[in-house]
Design a protein that fits this description.
It is built from 13 helices and 2 strands, in the order ααααααβαβαααααα. It is mainly α.
């Protein structure tokens, strides 16, 4: 009988052979990332060099233009007030129109469809020109009173036309209120589609369960459906708000001169410093949109909590001292 000495491949010790050896793992190399990083660094350096070495940017004059009184007045009265007013009109009309569009009543659904079709089909600049110039030409006076009062008074030979009050149409349509009306009506058509998509994203069983608990349809929509739809509605609404900030530059179609871009461009044409004036307007737009994006971030996190990939708010955890118990 021949004794076999345990060779290198022989299972001499089960404990030592069953365990895996030390793994010398090395991270996967990504040379492409370093190449992209170097290319981006070169591009950023070129942009910074262009800003600092090209005197035609004239940032010092741009900063002076930013804080001139007509520019600040245009920023407050035209850009900010126009954005807030138009979004209030847009959201205030858009949500009810979305609910009407989803209604089983064909009249309500048809009216909502015609509204969205009409105002989505007209460019905002054209709509503002029509409101600013056309309405005042077609209807110089806007009257308030009994419907068809003028016709009824003529038919009945009444001494009055049943008009309670009247106002010059151009005094409204030629001001910032006409701009807010035009931008708001256009925005309402887009907001109606956004709200309709958000309401449609909520499972129908939610409304049915609420109604089974005794809620009316309007209460179920207000307290159950809309809060859940907000996580879908908020991101595109924030996008529309940022777009509205820039679309206020179209108010010159009314024409409204108390507006940021109009004032900066006017200063540039008057002083022949066009590029610094455009830089001043650009910087204000960047500041406003940056603030709005921060607000949109927190709104998305608030309405999106508990859904999808939204990260929860960061909570600081402290080490629990030994022996204190707990999980």
């Amino acid at each position: 009988m021949t004794d076999l000495a345990p060779g290198p491949s022989a299972p001499a010790d089960h404990d030592s052979t069953d365990r895996p050896g030390v793994i010398h793992a090395r991270p996967v190399r990504h040379p492409g990332r370093w190449v992209a990083l170097a290319a981006i660094a070169v591009l950023v350096a070129m942009v910074v060099s262009s800003f600092t070495t090209n005197p035609r940017w004239n940032f010092s004059l741009a900063f002076e233009i930013m804080y001139q009184k007509p520019v600040l007045e245009g920023l407050l009265k035209g850009t900010l007030l126009g954005t807030v007013g138009a979004m209030i009109v847009g959201v205030g009309l858009g949500v009810p129109i979305a609910v009407m569009r989803l209604s089983s009543n064909p009249v309500l659904s048809g009216v909502a469809f015609v509204f969205t079709w009409f105002f989505r089909a007209i460019p905002r600049y054209v709509l503002l020109v029509v409101i600013g110039s056309g309405l005042g030409f077609l209807y110089p006076q806007t009257t308030f009173g009994v419907p068809f009062g003028l016709q009824l008074a003529g038919w009945l030979n009444l001494p009055t036309d049943l008009t309670l009050s009247s106002v010059s149409t151009f005094s409204v349509t030629g001001s910032i209120w006409g701009g807010i009306l035009g931008l708001g009506l256009s925005e309402a058509a887009y907001m109606a589609e956004i709200a309709r998509a958000g309401i449609g994203s909520v499972d129908r069983g939610q409304a049915e369960a609420a109604e089974a608990l005794g809620m009316s349809s309007s209460t179920a929509m207000r307290r159950i459906v809309l809060p859940q739809a907000m996580r879908v509605i908020v991101p595109p609404t924030g996008n529309e708000t940022i777009a509205m900030v820039k679309d206020t530059s179209l108010l010159s179609a009314i024409p409204i001169i108390t507006e940021l871009f109009y004032q900066t461009r006017n200063i540039g044409l008057r002083t022949l410093q066009i590029m610094p004036a455009l830089v001043a307007a650009t910087l204000w737009y960047l500041i406003i949109c940056s603030v709005l994006m921060v607000g949109q971030f927190y709104l998305e996190r608030y309405f999106g909590r508990g859904f999808g990939t939204t990260k929860p708010a960061t909570t600081r955890r402290f080490a629990r001292p030994g022996g204190s118990g707990g999980a």
